Amino acid sequence: MNTKKTPDENLLDAQLDFIMNGSQKQLDEYLAESGADVEEINRKASLAFDRAMDMHTKAKQAAETLANLSPGEQKIIADNLGIRRSVMTAFREHRVIVASIPKRFLAQLATQLRQTMEATTTALSAPAIQLSGQHKSDQKPDAAPDRVTFEKLLRDAAMTEDGVKELMRDDLDG
Amino acid sequence: MLIEDDIDDEPVLPEDTLASDKEIAEAVAQARESQGVQARLLLAAKFILAKTKELKRTCEPEDLLQEAILSVLLGKRKWRTNRVDFKGLLVGVMRSMASNRGKALTKTSALNLSLEHELPLVGEEQLPHNLEETSADPETTEEKLIRSEQEVFEKSQMAILLAKYEAGSIYRQILDMIRDGFVSHLGVREALGIEESVYRNAWKVLMRAAESLNTCTKEN
Q1: Residues forming beta bridges with residue B80, ordered by sequence position
Q2: Do A49 and B28 touch (CB under 8 A)?
Q3: Which of B13, B65, B97, B212 to mutate to test the interface with A (most CBs of A within 10 A)?
Q4: Are residues B101 and B146 in the same domain?
Q5: Which of A37, B99, B154, B212 has the highest Cβ tally under 10 A?
Q6: In chain B, which residue's Cα lies nearest the Cα of A56?
């Protein structure tokens, strides 16, 4: 594999080195000379941190809700969503490629979990929470499970063709 | 959202020391409290995003920074503390996310079918496509066009900067050195035998020129 950097990647390396490692005086001079609104930069950066931390809290909560569902709750939610328990298990183990899940289904799942759609989506995209007694001896603790598409999951669960079609609908209204 | 199917593309090596959730949370909180660090990270996001043609139209620097922080907090991106400090980690994650997402955006739906007569003629002789070869090629014509446009765009940034300055000028000498590989500004300065203050001023001029170029290309 050719790992040689392009001229533009080298230029970006040099720019980032200056931004991240240059002295504060040099950076302040650069910002002043380029007419940057430093207050606005600080405000936007703080907002990025705050939003990330807030979403992390919400996603963690959604992941815990999903992980801590009792067998009875799992059955009710699976029935309400029209999926088999094995599909529900795959969601609990974060084994689904999130981008392959229709928005309509994600919205329904979020409603069932009483979480926001964004928190549910983010939670599902993260590594699964390791529940006690869930760790298999032949699996490294940090090994990520292989993810599959939502459609493959439905087909592997032997759902009917009509059932798969219905669940794969991507309109949020219907 | 960039986070949805973001994956850690760096393997964890046996000698790697991974930060705990607590260490990550502390590092995020510390960075949040330092305006200097935050501002640098946002500026870094701006320059990283400027290097992507598709993504920068739909993503702001603060979005990229937010998604990188979230990815690290969620444990999607591991922090190998023996390799990089927290700021370096976030910069690396932003670069990787932007690059991966940029590539994904150039992928178009497989349903964008091209009819035979719509395919462009190929080669110097402008012959019709060999359809057997065309169907075996996983990249659609549109994808090829976008990729080639992206490659031209990426090459053009350095090319435009090089063209802007006369051969032999200090700006051109610095760019020529960086084009072939960058290790550190000190290395470039020493190799060129330039005084620190002269180099610093010249580099700031180049930074502003690149930023102004980024602004122009974003509008196009």
Answers
A1: B18
A2: yes
A3: B65
A4: no
A5: B154
A6: B70
- Chain B: closest CA distance from residue A163 (Å): 23
Helix axes B170-179, A7-21, angle to 10 degrees: 110
* Cα separation, A142 vs A170, whole angstroms: 33
Q: Do B66 and A49 touch (CB under 8 A)?
A: yes
The span from the CA of A106 to the CA of B203, in Å, is 49
- Domains identified in chain B, total number: 2
In chain A, domain spans: 39-131+144-168
- Residue B127: strand pairing partners: B122
Cα B89 to Cα B28, B75, B79, B99, B157: the distances in Å are 11, 13, 7, 15, 25
**B147 and B213 both lie in a single domain:** yes
Residue type, B90: L
Distance CA B215, CA B91 (A): 21
pLDDT tens track for A37-69: 999 999 999 999 999 999 999 999 999 999 999
Place of tokens 């689904």: A96
Residue tagged 């329904």 (tokens): A108
Secondary structure letter of residue A147 according to DSSP = P
* Residue A16, amino acid: L
**Is B62 inside a domain boundary?**
yes
Do residues B21 and A57 make contact, with C-beta atoms less than 8 angstroms apart?
no
> Domain limits at B160?
140-219
- Tokens linked to B28: 């995020």
Do residues B100 and B150 share a domain?
Answer: no
